[in-house]
Design brief:
The protein has 125 residues and is an all-alpha fold.
């Protein structure tokens, strides 16, 4: 665990992005191999790490990246803890509910936008 914190501090204070990439990948493999994650926790962890890597590539602030990474680790641990206590369905719900709500909101926005365009382009006489 000390290695992770030292790496996070180095990533947040170095301006060289290659150091951050290497450290992020090292954390990714450390956590996968040392935390025996259940499927929902593993899925959340992988999707979140990909999101953090995207944030790094897009030039996100180092402090935001570090805090996101800490949150991902803690929430993955919480999801894994729920699985070990026998609450697999609750864990899946916590992982999939935000994705389903985002999909529902996106579909609503697309539907509203297409309805707006179809009513505004009526032919004039």
């Amino acid at each position: 665990m000390v290695v992770i914190w030292v790496g996070l501090i180095a990533c947040s204070y170095k301006s060289f992005m290659t150091v951050c990439y290497n450290i992020t990948f090292q954390f990714f493999f450390l956590i996968i191999f040392y935390m025996d994650l259940c499927t929902p926790a593993f899925l959340y962890f992988v999707v979140s790490i990909l999101s953090i890597l995207g944030s790094i590539f897009m030039g996100g602030s180092p402090m935001t990246i570090v805090l996101s990474f800490v949150f991902v680790i803690l929430f993955s641990y919480f999801l894994n803890w729920l699985c070990t206590k026998g609450y697999n369905m609750v864990s899946w719900l916590l992982v999939l509910l935000p994705l389903l709500l985002s999909l529902l909101i996106l579909m609503t926005m697309v539907s509203a936008y297409s309805n707006k365009n179809s009513t505004s382009t009526s032919p004039s006489s």
